[in-house]
Amino acid sequence: MRNKFYISVLTLSAVLFTSCSSYRTSIDVSGKIIDTDEDNWLSMSIETSKNSKIPDEWWKIFKDDNLSDIMEIFVHNNYDLKLALLSFEASKSMAIINGASIYPDVNVGMNNSIFQQNTAGTPYEDITIHYHTPEDDIVDITIPTSSTNENHSFKFSSQWEMDLWGKLSSKSLSANKDLESKKNEYDFLKLSLISQAVKTYFNLVESNEQVALAESSVEAYEEIFNIVEERYNQGVRSSLDYRLALSNLLLSKATLEQRKMILDNLKRQMETLMGQYPTGKLTISDSLSKFLPAIPSNIPSDIIKNRPDIVSSYNKIESAAANLDYAIRMKFPSFSLTSSIGTSSSDLTKILNGDYSVWSVGTNLILPLFQNQKLKANENLSRSLFEQAEINYIHTVLRAFSEIENKLSISTMLKNQLSALDSAYVQTSEAYQLAKDRYDKGLADLITVLDSQKRMFDTKSQMILVEKALIENRVDLLICLGGDFSD
After folding, report:
1. Per-residue pLDDT tens digits for 298-309
2. What fold, for 2-101+109-480?
3. Which terminus of the chain is more exposed, N or C, with fewer CB under 10 A?
4. Burial 82-117 (b: 16+ CB within 10 A, else e)
């Protein structure tokens, strides 16, 4: 008889350990992707390429060896990236915790205890019992002043809430979708941090070009001042020319120092992003890259379905839907099974002896009757979060469309602006040379020379800024498209 019960307990335990209910949420989240009637972007009017694939190390497209070296260090050493990865790892652990209720809890335990009882100082001290044997002999038994008891046990125990209504499956699904959302958020954050580092580098190169331009400006103003000073000493030029030339020279030197401060600050900022001590001695290129990632000639609008932040937003809809399903099914009864099997003996050497086996089987049924509207309030809360997730997803998609169209449109405007500035620079350079020649011949005043000189350097400075803006725009476009131009 005992063996039959023993086999029954083992069978029940096996069922508990191996059974798992599978259920999918009843909330329909299909059809949430927003599509447009256009196959192409409306603002597509920049250079295109048949190659629609952007490599993982996309910054190498700029063909700047210094940038490649810096980004290799950045990817491995940046502390924001490390913190983001640790945050994602924490989210993975949290998802396991939240989704573990669908599986049985199995535990193994061992207990050892020794108990000693003393009768000294109690009414039972020195009590003698007279015991009559079957042979009518009288035996005196004296109760000892202390006694020792031992108990040793070893058992397996399990507890499992059977997922009869699929609510635990919904809870697990919600946790898994939330983890997918965290993973996509991490991917987008990583892409954003890398893009910010690339833009910081090109800010650094632009600043370096501005320093070089400021140095050229100082040399040019110094050349004019030397001419004016020589003629002023000869009495050919007035003190007005002398003072104008000197003030412009001093202002150009002040501008140079300001440019150097900006360059020094950006170098230290870049070194900090690389996880290195900010020495201000970072090696960078002398000029901005002329190589920009080409955009494929045909980009379908649904490419943003692959953008990590949009996918993350959709994952949140799925997670909220599953969580709503769980809240609805919380009104249903909960049915749990428990079992334990093991041994218990006062002798430690017999703890593995099957003759001393103990076992138990139990069930637990809980039916919510009166929860003071907590279950209904929880359902309303989950429904509200689900609707918020839907609205946030739509807003995220529309914002992404706006960002991409805006970046594509601005790219064309920047190219036109750069072309106009390039032509203007040619004209201002020729005007400066002409004004200087006329000044040497006494046919023009100094103000005309200084004005044309300032226009020339200002135009060149704007050209550098627009070239950097073009690079930043292309990097931003890459982020808007999710880091990959393929469909």
Report:
1. 565 566 677 888
2. Outer membrane efflux proteins (OEP) (1.20.1600)
3. N
4. eebeeebeebeeebeeebeebebeeeeeeeeeeeee
